[in-house]
Amino acid sequence: MTGWPRTIWTEARQIGALLGWPPAPGDGDAPDRFFEALRAEAHDRDAARFLGQALPRYETVLWAARTVERCSSQADPRVMAAVSAWLADPSETHRRAAYHAARAAPDPSAARLCGLAVFTSGGSLAPEGKPPYPAPKGAVGRFAAGAVLIAVADTPSRATALHQALDYGSRLAAGAPEGQP
């Protein structure tokens, strides 16, 4: 049994494939073990990318949103309000509102990527009334991990902030209550 009951993946290589990573030693391990190995080897940026794919979509957005709120002093409040609305009620209306807020935000920014993570978390990317077009596989995780990495870069102590974000994401994967990072 995996130490991350919220993930659907049984082997790290499944997540690595989503990221386009070549086969690596230990990638047959459970995701939590591979994640801890990445961290032990000081590959924290890769650990963030890995975690973005390992978490379920809702938890991925939650992880990114809480990290952006905590770390980014310049997070666009309109985008983060739209992301928070979606987290409170993950409806189609809130998903599209997060997209529109993200499009209006400066590029690149942690808040913008967080809003795009919401938009790619489910539903169609096509305009309303057009034939459905699903998000590329893994898009939500890529946007969320990018949001986390940009947010922690906005702090005086990047390494500490990233460690805290990775700890929080790992706790979410382990089934801990949402709480704050």
Question: What's the short version?
Answer:
The chain is mainly alpha-helical. The chain has nine helices and no strands.
Describe the structure.
This protein is an all-alpha fold. The protein has one domain. Helices cover 61% and strands 0% of the residues. It has helices at 12-19, 31-40, 44-54, 57-71, 77-88, 92-104, 110-119, 139-153, 158-173. Helix 7 runs antiparallel to helix 8 (139-153). The model has no long low-confidence stretch (mean pLDDT 94).
If you average the pLDDT, what whole number results? 94
Number of helices: 9
Summed up, the domain count is 1
Provide the succession of SSEs.
HHHHHHHHH
Q: Roughly how many Å is the radius of gyration?
A: 16 Å
Morphology: globular
N-to-C span: 25 Å
Question: How many DSSP-defined strands?
Answer: 0
Low-confidence stretches: none
* Oligomeric description of these chains: single chain
Beta-strand portion reads: under 5%
- Which range best describes the helical content: under 10%, 10-25%, 25-40%, 40-55%, 55-70% or over 70%? 55-70%
Sheet with the most strands, sense and barrel status: none
- The SS-based structural class is mainly alpha
Relevant terms:
mainly alpha, 61% helix, 0% strand
What order do the helices and strands come in, and which of them pair?
Blueprint: H1 12-19, H2 31-40, H3 44-54, H4 57-71, H5 77-88, H6 92-104, H7 110-119, H8 139-153, H9 158-173
